[in-house]
Every structure is written in C-alpha cells, then in structure tokens.
C-alpha cells in the first residue's frame, strides 16, 4: 500500500497521527442511538474500514490522498451502519455485508465530492472541502474512481439483486443532482419538486443500504420492502432536519455556519414554505436573495424573521416527524429485539438533533 493509504489506515484505527496528535475516530463517539448502533456493528465496521482503505489504494498518489482526505473527515458512516444493522435485524451471520457496506460508503463519498464541486462549496463537515484543497477537476475524477471501486465491490459480491439495487440507487442519485441543478436558485420551486430531489439525492441511498442488508440475509420480499421503506422515510426525515438546521444550528455542534444554504441560494423546504406564504414584497426579497444572489449582511436575519413569522421551520420539522413516523411503522412487522430498538432510536436521533 502507498504511504498515504497506510497513514489513513492508522487514522481509522485510532492511532496517533505523524504530528503526535490523536487521530480522529472514523465514527464520532455520539451519545444515544448512533453510539449504540456503532457498538452493535463495531466488529463489522472495523472490517468495513479495512476494505475501504484497501480499495482506495492506487499507484496514482493523488487518488488515495484526496479520497483519504474526505473519508477520514469525520463522517458518521450512517449509511453503511444501517446496512450492517439491517442485516443483523434479518439474522445474517456471514460477511458479505461488510464489502457491500464499503460500497455504499464509496457511493456516498463520491456523491459528496461531486456535490461540493457542483455547489461550489468550500466547507465540508467544518473543514475545507476536498475541491477547495485539491481543486475541482481532481475531486470529480476521484469521485469517479470511488464510484468504480463501489461497483467492483458489488461485482465481487456476485449478487444480481444487490447489483440492481445499488446501481439503480446510483442512477437515481445522479437524476436527483440534475433535478436540483434545474431547480437551483428558482423561487418557483414548490414542495413537490423539493421532495422529489430529496428522495432521489438522499433517501434513495438510505433505502438501498437497508434493503441490501435484507438481501444478504435472504429475507423475503416483505422484509426487503419494509427495510427499504424504513430507509427511504428515514432519509427524507434526515434531509428535512438538515435543511432546518442550516437556519438554526450552532457551527460548533454541526460543523457548519448558520445560513450556508441561504448564502448559496439553495431552495430548501424552510425557504419554499416561506416563499409560498409570503406577500409580494416578501417574494421580491426571496427573489433578490436566492435567485439573483444580491445579498446584504442583514438579509439572513430578515430571512429568519420571515421564517419565524410564517412558522416555516416548525412546519418543516413537522414534515420530518411525519416521515419519522413512517420509518418507525415500517419496522412494525419485525419482532422486538435490541437491533430493532436501535433502528427505531436512530429515527429519533435523525429528528432530534439540535435545531
């Protein structure tokens, strides 16, 4: 392995970095549901990390360097952990789910690299984004590399069902990106269009990860459908809360500044609802700020006033809770168990983050 990949392997194992400081854990030690899920799948997750490191290696030094930068940047590994947890829920005791969980993480990481280039983002999880550090062209190309590695892992698994589920998810995610691009900076974007983008960009990979967990366990069609529905509803709720947090989260807690979406002109649900409820003067304000990107330092505060006036943050959270209820209902057919309870608790984690 290259020196860069060896260093990353040490970081994911929690070894000290070359400068003597403790390396960041690949999964933050969070209280509650995510911590419980991490403990539940810890042994499998360690192997997933090993597979990730091994499959990022390349003789082209920039590839493991850039890929390692984003892989080790502190993500929760929620999607691969959901796959591992779903497999446990269905009684699986083998090892196939480990490589497939790594494949899911590669798909997710590739989309992050591409997203940040398309959005022109300079921050990711509170640190400089890969495209800010390495440039747009390397980020796109390394994202392509990770997609290719994801598909190699699927092929190595040998299941046509798995290949169909994950390849379809990758295509749907790409469609979501194009939908979002078409609706970018357009205040005419309605809630239906917004939710279609969320289902494609975010929820589809959640759904695919959970369904693959059932597939490797040879679970029946009902279990597969239930876990896919759980993941899909959870993914929508997760994104809705993320969009609310952008207007109310503390950067120290979530690694992002308040109003990033506003400054970039992103049309997310809190803005969609405020635009729909506003009068002509308010719509002119939103057009200037989100379509024309003609903003003053005081505009974010005014946007927050309008959202409070129309209760759009609360409305968006109500939508998220509704999807959370759908996710919980999807697991009703599974017998009570510690795994099932943790997956139910993950719904609460996704909805009850600081906002």
Write out key terms for the chains shown.
single chain; mainly alpha; Farnesyl Diphosphate Synthase; two-stranded antiparallel ribbon; 2 strands
How would you describe this structure to a colleague?
- The chain is mostly helical.
- It is 72% helix and 1% strand.
- The chain is built from 18 helices and two strands.
- The chain has a two-stranded antiparallel sheet.
- Helix 5 packs across helix 10, helix 6 runs antiparallel to helix 8 (136-157) and helix 14 packs across helix 16 (299-310).
Write the layout of secondary structure elements.
Blueprint: H1 3-12, H2 33-40, H3 42-56, H4 62-71, H5 78-89, H6 96-119, E1 123-124, E2 127-128, H7 130-134, H8 136-157, H9 160-183, H10 191-216, H11 221-245, H12 251-254, H13 260-264, H14 269-277, H15 280-291, H16 299-310, H17 312-330, H18 338-351
Q: Sheet with the most strands? A: 2 strands, antiparallel
Secondary-structure-derived class: mainly alpha
The CATH architecture comes to Orthogonal Bundle
Strand-and-helix sequence, N→C? HHHHHHEEHHHHHHHHHHHH
Distance between the termini: 43 Å
Query: What's the alpha carbon Rg, rounded to whole Å?
Result: 20 Å
Number of E strands: 2
The helix count comes to 18
CATH topology assignment: Farnesyl Diphosphate Synthase
Mean of residue pLDDT values: 89
Please tell me what the overall shape is: globular
Annotated CATH homologous superfamily? Farnesyl Diphosphate Synthase
| Spans where pLDDT lies below 50 across 5 or more residues | 15-30
Helical residue percent?
over 70%
Percentage beta strand: under 5%
The total number of structural domains is 1
Biggest sheet strand line-up? 1-2
Quick one: CATH class? Mainly Alpha
């Amino acid at each position: 392995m290259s020196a860069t990949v060896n260093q990353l392997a040490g970081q994911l194992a929690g070894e000290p970095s070359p400068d003597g400081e403790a390396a960041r854990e690949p999964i933050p030690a969070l209280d509650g549901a995510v911590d419980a899920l991490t403990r539940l799948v810890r042994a499998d997750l360690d192997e997933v990390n090993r597979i990730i490191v091994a499959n990022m290696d390349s003789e082209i030094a920039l590839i493991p360097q850039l890929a390692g930068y984003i892989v080790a940047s502190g993500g929760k590994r929620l999607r691969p952990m959901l796959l591992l947890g779903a497999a446990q829920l269905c009684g699986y005791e083998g090892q196939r789910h480990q490589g497939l969980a790594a494949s899911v993480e590669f798909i997710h990481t590739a989309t992050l690299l591409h997203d940040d280039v398309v959005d022109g983002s300079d921050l990711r999880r509170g640190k400089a984004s890969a495209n800010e550090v390495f440039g747009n062209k390397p980020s796109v190309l390394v994202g392509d590399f990770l997609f290719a590695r994801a598909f190699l892992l699927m092929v190595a698994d040998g299941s046509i069902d798995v290949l169909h589920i994950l390849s379809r998810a990758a295509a749907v995610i790409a469609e979501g990106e194009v939908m979002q691009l078409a609706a970018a900076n357009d205040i005419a974007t309605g809630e239906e269009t917004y939710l279609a983008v969320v289902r494609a960009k975010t929820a589809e990979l959640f759904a695919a990860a959970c369904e693959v967990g059932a597939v490797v366990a040879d679970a029946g069609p009902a279990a597969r459908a239930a876990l896919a529905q759980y993941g899909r509803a959870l993914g929508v709720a997760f994104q809705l809360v993320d969009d609310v947090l952008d207007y109310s989260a503390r950067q120290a807690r979530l690694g992002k500044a308040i109003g990033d979406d506003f400054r970039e002109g992103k049309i997310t649900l809190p803005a969609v609802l405020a635009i729909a409820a506003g009068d002509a003067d308010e719509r002119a304000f939103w057009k200037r700020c989100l379509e024309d990107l003609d903003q003053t330092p005081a505009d974010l505060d005014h946007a927050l006033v309008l959202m409070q006036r129309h209760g759009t943050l609360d409305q968006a959270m109500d939508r998220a809770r509704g999807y959370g209820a759908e996710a919980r209902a999807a697991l009703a057919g599974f017998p009570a168990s510690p795994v099932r309870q943790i997956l139910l608790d993950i719904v609460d984690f996704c909805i009850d983050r600081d906002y």
